[in-house]
Amino acid sequence: MSYITLLSLIIGYFFIFSSGLVVTVYIFRNRKNYGTKFIGLLTAATAFSLGVIHATFYILSVVFFISEQINILFWKFSILAWFISLIITSLLFSFFREYKKIKSFPFLFYTLLLGLLIGTLLTPHSITLNLSTSLPSSIIFIDPSLINYYFNIVTGTITIVFQILIISHYLYIAIIINIRSKKKEETLPILLNAIIFSITITLNILYILFQQTLFRELFIIVLWIAHIGVSIMFVNKPDIFFVLPNRIYSINIYHKSGIQLYSYNFENQSDSNTESTIWGNILIGLNHILSEFLDKKDKINVIQTQDADIV
């Protein structure tokens, strides 16, 4: 038995499990610091699903041998936890690009693939277990290299296609952010994170294709290292979701009558050529129209446009 691999995985699991719980509780208790409560909950869900759920089912399926059916069940649960974690992480990556906005199509497609995966996992022989030793008579620790899982064509294809799409999505968003950002040092962690996660996913794809346990162990090692790095980033920079995509170019404050009270330009805004004085007239017009229908003193305080907020 390879005690080094076995002990390394067990020690790594307890570290990841403990840190995952701590980070999840910390993020949940401080979720207001992450821009919106929804982003805070997604961030906590990412830490919990990867650091607790996926890690637990992974260890139970490759370090312990209980029975063929139970081990396969644990492995299927680890796959589902991995899928769900990738979908949640994709949601978070979408916030890096555009705060509070999610494009529905990719996530509806991911949800469809998740449904297909659940359906195929429920079929017999979707995943089979190969044990390179005689079947033990009781629950034992086992050398991870002796236990292997094989995917049938349908299950393997769905899993690989899903992960390839996720890689493309991660890299696309990270590259777009890096190209559009004027301060590359702010977006570099996002790009590096996307590259590391892409390497992790690639290792998992290689395991499914070639069924070599080496790729599986490399996958979990790189994943746990990446998870620690991302957790540190989430704890130290909770404002990353609304700092990166929402650079302030100027501040214009108007009286409800439309008179401009204050204006300050931080830098030249390249995305909009609209003169700030126009918005005063817009406020007057909208308040006048609404005054015909509403019996209130204050009509409009803020207008949100595609490129700016007018106060």
Automatic annotation (TrEMBL):
TM regions (residue ranges): 6-28, 40-66, 72-95, 107-129, 149-178, 190-210, 216-235
Keywords per UniProt: Membrane, Transmembrane, Transmembrane helix
Protein name according to UniProt: Histidine kinase N-terminal 7TM region domain-containing protein
Taxonomic lineage from the root: unclassified sequences, metagenomes, ecological metagenomes
